[in-house]
Amino acid sequence: MSIDTDTARRVAKLARIKVEDDALPALAQEFSAILGFIEQLNEVDVDGVEPMTSVTPQRLYRRDDVVTDGGQQDRVLANAPDAREGFFAVPKVVE
Amino acid sequence: MSDLTKLTIAAARDALRKGEVTSVELTSACLTAIDAADTLNAFVHKTPEVAESQAKSADQRIQAGEAPDLCGIPLGIKDLFCTKGVASQAASRILEGFKPEYESTVTTQLFDAGAVMLGKLNMDEFAMGSSNETSVYGDAVNPWKVDDRQLTPGGSSGGSAAAVAADLCLGATGTDTGGSIRQPAAFTGITGIKPTYGRVSRWGVVAFASSLDQAGPMTKDVRDSAIMLQAMSGFDAKDSTSANIPVPDFEAALTGDIRGKVIGIPKEYRMDGMPAEIQKLWEDGTAMLRDAGAEVRDISLPHTKYALPAYYVIAPAEASSNLARYDGVRFGHRAKLDAGDGITEMYEKTRAEGFGAEVQRRVMVGTYVLSAGFYDAYYNRARRVRALIKRDFDQVFADGVDAILTPATPSAAFGLGEMKNADPIQMYLNDVFTVTVNLAGLPGISVPAGLDAKGLPLGLQLIGRPWEEGDLLNVAYALERSAGFNAKPAKWW
Asked: Does A58 touch chain B (CB under 8 A)?
């Protein structure tokens, strides 16, 4: 499958990664090569095979639904690029 | 004692018990070796203060008696592990300045056992790479050198491999999503094991592809891998995929007796264009196991060919989801914004600046295969093929095979920069023999088994039954004894 620059632009947008227009053709070409490689999977007969959800035959571990942690606002915010008054700060999001 | 840094973990453990050496002395020897090896770019955050303090406590504990095996042993920690108060960046610019407020379960267990952290080790960015060339810290360099070229130590655990091979530490942690412990171990002449999925907690290890990621030890020999894996393993309520089953004594499993064990040789691993040296190494390894009393059997794993393409759907898909958290809000890098930029521009600029080219590529491929209209055709199909790959292994194990022998890599270490202009898929082929093991959740170990014509190490891989790491380590131990690999890189750094 060949990926065009419009598709590359759309994927970059979905992934929230800024890609300059002049970099899109090379990116599209790389996607095409990788997806071409992946296309081999179409040769496999997967009729009646369920998609794997867990590689080991176990249910996800569940714990009791109780509070086990908390009350550490300072530590939660310690690595934030911008934290103010006990909150993460971001640019204005109101449209 | 001379050459303290060259000791194995087992030898150092015994010397510490006998009082022939202290952890402070061992640690200091390693710190000196690390400072003299900056050319290798293996240690990217050195933690001498942490190390010295841990070594002092370890010495007290050893003197008091009853100290665990790893007490006082100086280790390197891959940068992917979160270590409290110590930079943990996954070799990415996007985590620049990040100092976790918590400790990963693996490092917690190692430190509880008395291990000493020398520092954090170089790796491919977010563990995405096979040559340690995608790191924000620059390339790690293989201590093995046979001409004027600098060679890759492999990846993604390249710094761990280089550090152990160059005797900068006694052992190191690695992680393996598609071969990231086993391929670098093979490229540097050391031993590395990826345990069964669920054996080692993933909590506090920066996530790449959560259904494939497992941590494991990288060490100078098989016994050391057994000792270190023991300390890293076990149930952890903080990892929902952690297995709540007992951890056997791995070191006690090393008897060297493999009489009657059935070793499978999968015909699908005989790739077109495989170098004659790799073929010969594989045949030699087969003969060694036969001579040690194992029964060698030809087997078939028919879906092997589809493992890499399935991996390159599943791993990027999971990565695109896992790496969504790097948005410039809670930790790490945030791009400088222009007037009028909103939150979307903040995300897009932050991620463009913070992620390197390979990470961006994989996140976008993952985004594509998960996007509306393609989810079934790519992602669900890859998960079906994954089920078939696992079924191949289930079948041979049900037929009585105890372990499977394959080459670890399709070549010896290549030169840094040599793959720069290659198609990304050429680089992906490095993992052709290892990636099946992650997809099937099995334990796999790489054991150094010989040198190529130029004098570079080559490794063989053994694949075991799920949860049978003890048995697998024992077969590896028998192979190690027969191969008698004891070559070391000549010091040039």
From this structure: yes
| pLDDT mean over A21-30 | 95
Q: Which among B102, B263, B122, B249 has a CA at the least distance from the CA of B180?
A: B122
Contacts of B331 in chain A (CB under 8 A): 79-81
Residues of A in contact with B197 (CB under 8 A): 55-56
Helix, strand, coil shares of chain A, percent, nearest 5, are 40, 5, 55
Q: What DSSP designation does B151 have?
A: B
What does DSSP say about strands B171-176 and B74-78: parallel, antiparallel, or unpaired? Answer: parallel
| Residues in Cβ contact with B344 at an 8 Å cutoff, skipping those fewer than 6 apart | A16
Identify which of A38, A51, A75 has the shortest CB distance to residue B312: A38
- In this complex, which of A14, A81, A91 lies closest to B371 when CB atoms are compared? A14
- The contacts of residue B4 (CB under 8 Å, 6+ apart) are B12, B21, B25, B26, B29, B30
Give the separation between CA B324 and CA B311, rounded to whole angstroms.
20
Closest Cβ–Cβ partner in B334, B341, B369 for A82: B334
Output the six-digit token pair for B121.
């080790």
B101:A78 CB<8 A: yes
The sign of the CA dihedral B422, B95, B218, B320 is negative
B54 DSSP β-pair partners = none
User: Looking at chain B, which residue has its C-alpha nearest residue A14?
Assistant: B367
Which pLDDT score, from 0 to 100, does residue A95 have? 64
Mean pLDDT calculated for residue range B52-75: 97
Of B290, B245, B284, B232, which Cα lies nearest the Cα of B263? B290
> What are the two backbone dihedrals, phi and then psi, of residue B42, each rounded to the nearest 5 degrees?
-85, -50
**Number of separate helices (H) and strands (E) present in chain B:** 15, 11
H helices of B43-169, in order, are 48-64, 105-112, 158-165
Catalytically active residues of B are 78, 156, 180
- Which one of A3, A4, A13, A17 makes the best mutation probe of the B interface by having the most chain B beta carbons within 10 Å? A17
A33–B423: do the CB atoms touch at under 8 Å? yes
User: Which residues of A fall within a CB distance of 8 Å from B88?
Assistant: none
d(CA B274, CA B269) in angstroms, rounded, equals 9
**What pLDDT band is residue B1 in, cutting at 50, 70 and 90?**
low
The answer to whether residues B187 and B412 touch, using CB atoms and an 8 Å cutoff, is yes
Interval B307-361: pLDDT, tens: 999 999 999 999 999 999 999 999 999 999 999 999 999 999 999 999 999 999 9
DSSP assignment letter at B419 = T
